[in-house]
Design a protein that fits this description.
The complex is a heterodimer of chains A (about 675) and B (about 525). Chain A is mostly helical. In chain A, about 75% of the residues lie in helices and about 5% in strands. With about 525 residues, chain B is mainly alpha-helical. Chain B is globular and about 70 Å long.
């Protein structure tokens, strides 16, 4: 009986097999397979489910104290050179495996309800399985190169899923943007991987780390070059985990179906960047400059995400910017040299953010019954309100999510965020201030979302407001596939409610696994460090910091309550009108999209156009000119045709002499 | 091996005598049968007589032809040619299947197709420089006719440009071939193995190398010798297209490896930095032109040029890994390019336009087509799990770890080449978006009949996709077939490199930033 770790290769292969079967079926027997909705869904859910069971077994083994397992084989070779592939299971991987499979299964069950009426139901499930497979492959990759392979594959799945509703222009643009921005990161990642390979001769994490350190210490590699390579590699996680300035794709990616936003763009794929940085800790650790850069980038991102989230009116985009901000927290932890804290926040965030997104999907699904399938209307919070009456399960779980992310003890977000802030306080006090203030903003915008959506009066029937929103989005009024047929929304079916309820449990409880005085999570990932932390733990240090962050969260929540629940405080006049520049700055997302468009999109188009001009006018022009000259000279040469044999002989003779001289000079 | 060359040509000669109603139905089955038999012949030769572990020539057949001149019909295969021979017969048989809708002068069309099949296999298989020249020229004529008769609106211009370009450049092959035969001591000979044994002076090698580089650079193509390609590709029909992209371009790469590297290693040692620079120029320049291009066929034609840049870098990399990568990139692009061009043809059959502005939202009614397009585009932008990724990665890794260049040269070139990694998805995904995404284009849908992919089309593309994915998942199925030959080749060029740079190995090329491409004048 082989151990679960030895069978870990099955974890990504099972969903892949399922995806391949249905994918081939879709291409060859499109109509039949499209009709087999439930069987396909069951097949794929059980594939991912089996992977989940196996992942739990792997995790159980790791909890029992099994060491890392690594299996490799020769993948490509030339000369004395071998590229190895394989898989590797350790504590970090086991945690991620269980996390990804759990959320994937829940999201798939949820999708059965959410996508029930979509004609692309089967295709959607196929993509989901494909994504799960690539994500799981990424998690068990033993070296940088294999990570890069799966890194690209999850990017491709994200592309396919964001562009899932391909008849929408917004989705088409967002899908392409996501892929291209990620490719910009991959450009750095690829160069970094190649450079590290050149410097160390290896793709393995530990080997790179130790050899790079040796090379720098031995003087064969300048310190600056090593830092440059590390930062190049970091470009990959920057794009994937939506760090400033490569975060721009993530909010747009909300064009995809909402289960995707929960699975890919909140819980798993965007966390891959953080995961990679955690894997690369042995490489980054010896270079404080790299660590500081990571921390600063994380801090900018967390402030940026939270500040933009303050003004968003689109429910999903608000959550998306919140994700950006939380990913910034994780990066901050990585930069402070505390991968365990970052990973812990990754896990807690995955649970509550997936739940929040699924909750927003449930809301949107219900809103579509009232306002129709136009995303401009169905996702706008100005048309929501009062949904708590109609959707008790959704609103309760959403509230739990809000409390969790706001950092109120004992819910999950408190423990993980507080751990990060604690580490930041120790290493970069200035960044701690930013993170601390952002914690208040987080609490404010999350409760703003909650109150606008679930409390007050239902505003979905307001036709004038609908027309106004459509006009603002530049769409003709009354457009879209028909208006709603219900006067008020309904709670979603069990397929959608069940995952919400299930996810609420870890959102409340999982934080207790990472209490600083006895962190079970830390014990698993890095027992040595966890023991150290537990030993140095003192209530007198913990309480002031924790108290402060709870206090600022409560302050944020109070402002939200005053403004949106009790309507005692009119923020529009109190703040927005007084600082119009600031408001415009936030509403325009720091103008980053505009800058990117001007600089890169239009710039590259212009450059490409001018190169094409050169190609057709200059390069091809010379060719055509040569053709003309030949014609002309032929005309000219006509007059040399004297018909005298001696003349021709002379020319031939001259040519031969010239050749002889030429070859003579060579000899 | 001779059988694989002569059989399609002989079979082509029979075509005029096939009784046919004029719609070409019988001829096309016949042609398909012939190309398939040829494919099986080459596969049989590969399985029975070819041992991947041997680095030298195998499957040799030699018949003296004109003994006085040392001319002989000699064919054979080694690691460099065997994969390309297989590729040729494979793509041609699929092209025959892709040519199903051809109804205009079918007999002549299939005659030319079969003649090309034989000619192209001959290019890769012959082991004699004069024969190589003949085969090279012979295979031009069918392409010229295929372009000039079945092409688009500007077919005459394109065909003339093609023939002038390639025929003009092949003069260099003849001149250099003659010079090499009579120069360098020993009896005049055209045979590769004898030529390899000759000891050419470095100066002579440089001249010969430059001549051959122009000749093969047109074919590959190397910017700025590329302008025939968008015209030719822009006017060709789908099956011709598949052959052009799938095989013709590879002749350039093959010939560079065979002659420039194998026969003129010292010239190569001097020229290699130039090859790398040209490769980078190819990648970026063609990617940009492709991005700006509004005509679908020309867009993909430029993307082919861009991908060939990796072949150049690989050849110039002085590492076994990089050179294998170049080889794999040729095979991989042969498959991916052929599938993309086939899809372009299939789409054109439905939309009757190649202008991207006139398309849009086609995905609604052509879902399977959309899926196939997406897969092929992803393959082309080097998605892992497909062959393009492996080959580009091998080229990159090989080049970066190569000992022959200075560090700064490697950094700059690798960074520039990696810009292509960003540009390729930009133009390919923009293209996909403009064709398939968005609301259905009402005007297009009103006057065209947008039917979804037929089983035949799905079959052709999946035949191409199977090896693409196969190589992508486990590249050794391909790389192991030519590994020993490439290693021997790289060994040869590395010793030549050391010989060229005698005083202090590496000093000539290992120079500071960007002075590396020392052009010997």
């Amino acid at each position: 009986m082989p151990s679960a770790a030895e069978l870990a290769w099955l974890i990504p292969v099972l969903p892949l097999a399922g995806a391949c079967i249905t994918g081939l079926g879709l291409i060859s027997f499109n109509r039949t397979v499209n009709r087999l909705r439930k069987p396909v869904a069951w097949l794929l859910i059980s594939c991912v489910g089996a992977a989940a069971v196996l992942s739990y077994a792997v995790l159980a083994e790791q909890l029992a104290g099994a060491g890392p397992t690594e299996v490799l084989f020769n993948w490509a070779s030339a000369g004395n050179f071998n590229l190895q592939m394989g898989f590797r299971v350790d504590a970090l991987g086991a945690v991620m495996l269980s996390l990804v499979t759990t959320i994937a299964v829940l999201v798939m069950v949820y999708s059965d309800g959410y996508m029930a009426h979509d004609k692309g139901y089967v295709r959607f499930f196929t993509y989901l399985a494909l994504f799960s497979s690539s994500m799981l492959g990424l998690v068990i990759s033993p070296n940088l190169l294999e990570i890069y392979v799966f890194w690209e594959l999850v990017g491709m799945c994200s592309y396919l899923l964001v562009g899932f509703w391909y008849d929408r222009d917004g989705a088409a643009n967002a899908a392409q943007k996501a892929f291209v921005v990620n490719r910009v990161g991959d450009f750095g990642l690829l160069l970094g991987i190649l450079g590290l390979f050149w410097a160390t001769g290896s793709f393995g994490f530990e080997e790179i780390g130790s050899r790079l350190q040796e090379a720098v210490a031995g003087g064969s590699l300048p310190n600056a070059a090593a830092i440059l390579l590390c930062l190049l590699v970091f470009m990959g996680p920057m794009a994937k985990s939506a760090q400033f300035p490569l975060h721009v794709w993530l909010p747009d990616a909300m064009e995809g179906p909402t289960p995707i936003s929960a699975l890919i763009h909140a819980a798993t794929m965007v966390a891959a960047g953080v995961f990679l940085v955690a894997r690369l800790q042995p490489v980054y650790e010896p270079f404080p400059a790299v660590q500081a850069t990571i921390a600063v980038v994380g801090t900018i991102t967390l402030v940026l995400g939270a500040s933009i989230a303050l003004t968003q009116m689109d429910l999903k985009k608000g959550l998306a910017y919140s994700t950006v901000s939380q990913l910034g927290y994780m990066m901050l932890a990585m930069g402070c040299g505390a991968p365990v804290a970052g990973m812990f926040h990754l896990v807690t965030h995955a649970f509550f953010k997936a739940m929040l997104f699924l909750g927003s999907g449930s809301v949107i699904h219900a809103m579509e019954e009232v306002v129709g399938h136009e995303p401009v209307l169905a996702q706008d919070m100005r048309l929501m309100g009062g949904l708590r009456k109609y959707m008790p399960i959704t609103s309760t779980t959403f509230l739990i999510g809000c409390v969790a992310i706001a950092g109120i003890p004992p819910l999950a977000g408190f423990w993980s965020k507080d751990e990060i802030l604690g580490v930041a306080f120790g290493s970069f006090p200035l960044l701690w201030v930013a993170g601390f203030i952002t914690a208040g903003m987080t609490a404010f915008y999350m409760f703003r979302l909650y109150f606008l959506t679930f409390e007050g009066e239902f505003r979905g029937g307001d036709k004038a407001l609908q027309a106004q929103l459509l006009a603002a989005a530049g769409k003709p009024p009354g457009d879209g596939d028909g208006h709603g047929h219900a006067s008020h929304p309904h709670e979603s079916g069990w397929q959608m409610a069940m995952p919400l309820a299930v996810l609420a449990v870890p959102s409340v409880l999982v934080g207790l696994l990472g209490t600083p005085w006895n962190s079970r999570f830390g014990n698993l990932l890095d027992p040595q460090e966890a023991a150290e932390v537990a030993e140095h733990f003192s209530w007198s240090e913990f309480l002031p910091l924790a108290g402060a962050s709870v206090a600022i969260s409560v302050a944020g929540i109070s402002v939200a309550v005053l403004a949106y629940a009790l309507h005692k405080l009119d923020l529009a006049t109190a703040v927005a009108a007084r600082f119009p520049a600031l408001n415009a700055f936030l509403a325009n997302k720091w103008y980053l999209d505009a800058i990117n468009d001007k600089l890169f999109v239009q710039g590259s188009r212009k450059l490409a156009k001018s190169v094409l001009e050169v190609d057709s006018k200059v390069v091809d022009g010379v060719v055509n000119l040569t053709g003309l000259v030949t014609l002309g000279s032929g005309e000219g040469l006509k007059y040399f045709e004297t018909g005298r044999a001696q003349f021709y002989a002379l020319i031939v003779f001259g040519g031969v002499i010239a050749l002889v001289v030429l070859f003579g000079s060579l000899g | 091996m001779s059988a694989a060359i002569l059989f399609p040509i002989a079979a082509a000669l029979v075509i005029p005598f096939i009784p046919d109603a004029g719609d070409g139905k019988r001829v096309r089955w016949y042609a398909l049968g012939v190309t398939l038999t040829t494919f099986l012949l080459t596969v049989g030769g590969y399985l029975n007589g070819y041992d991947p572990a041997v680095e030298g020539l195998q499957l040799v057949e030699r018949v003296s032809w004109l003994p006085k001149l040392g001319l002989a019909w000699s064919v054979g295969a080694d690691g460099i040619s065997m994969p390309l021979i297989l590729l040729t017969s494979f793509i041609t048989s699929l092209a025959a299947l892709a040519a199903w809708p051809v109804t205009f002068k079918p007999k002549l069309f299939y005659f030319l197709l079969l003649a090309m099949d034989g000619g192209q296999i001959a290019v890769f298989a012959v082991q004699d420089m004069l024969l190589f020249f003949l085969a090279w020229e012979l295979e031009l004529l069918p392409v010229y006719l295929l372009l000039a008769i079945w092409g688009g609106k500007k077919r005459q211009y394109a065909a003339t440009k093609f023939i002038l370009y390639t025929a003009g450049s092949s003069l260099f092959i003849l001149v250099v071939g003659l010079a090499m035969a009579f120069y360098g001591g020993g009896a005049p000979t055209f045979e590769y193995t004898d030529l390899m044994a000759k000891d050419f002076s470095t100066k002579f090698q440089l001249f010969a190398y430059a001549g051959l580089l122009i000749a093969f650079g047109v074919k590959l193509p190397i910017v700025p010798l590329h302008t025939w390609l968008p015209d030719a590709h822009g006017e060709a029909t789908a099956p011709v297209h598949m052959l052009l992209a799938g095989i013709l371009l590879k002749m350039g790469g093959y010939a560079l490896l065979r002659f420039n590297v194998q026969l003129l290693p010292e010239g190569h040692a001097q020229f290699a930095p130039l090859l790398v620079v040209l490769g980078v120029v190819n990648i970026i320049y063609a990617a940009l032109t492709s991005f700006a291009q509004r005509n679908l066929k020309r867009k993909i034609a430029y993307s082919s040029i861009s991908h060939m840049g990796f072949v150049l870098i690989g050849i110039g990399s002085f590492s076994a890994l990089g050179t294998s990568g170049a080889m794999l990139q040729m095979i991989s692009h042969g498959l991916i390019g052929a599938s993309l061009f086939f899809l372009v043809g299939a789409t054109y059959d439905r939309t009757h336009t190649l202008q991207l502005d006139e398309m849009g939202g086609v995905g609604q009614s052509m879902r399977k087509m959309f899926a196939l397009w997406t897969i092929c585009c992803l393959a082309s932008l080097a998605l892992p799990g497909m062959s393009g990724f492996v080959s580009e990665l091998m080229v990159f890794t090989g080049f970066v770890t190569s000992e022959a260049y200075s560090l700064s040269f490697r950094i700059v070139m690798a960074a520039l080449a990696a810009v292509g990694v960003i540009l390729t998805p930009v133009y390919l995904l923009s293209m996909l978006r403009e064709i398939f995404f968005g609301k259905e284009n009402v005007e297009l849908a009103s006057h065209t009949h947008l039917v979804d992919a037929e089983p035949r089309e799905i079959y052709v593309v999946s035949c191409l996709l199977v090896p693409i994915v196969g190589i992508g998942l486990y590249p050794r199925i391909m790389t192991d077939t030519y590994r020993s030959s490439i290693e021997a080749l790289v060994q040869r060029e590395t010793t030549a490199l050391a010989r060229v740079i005698q005083p202090q190995p590496g000093s000539l090329i290992r120079q500071p930033l960007l002075t590396a491409p020392l052009l010997p004048v």
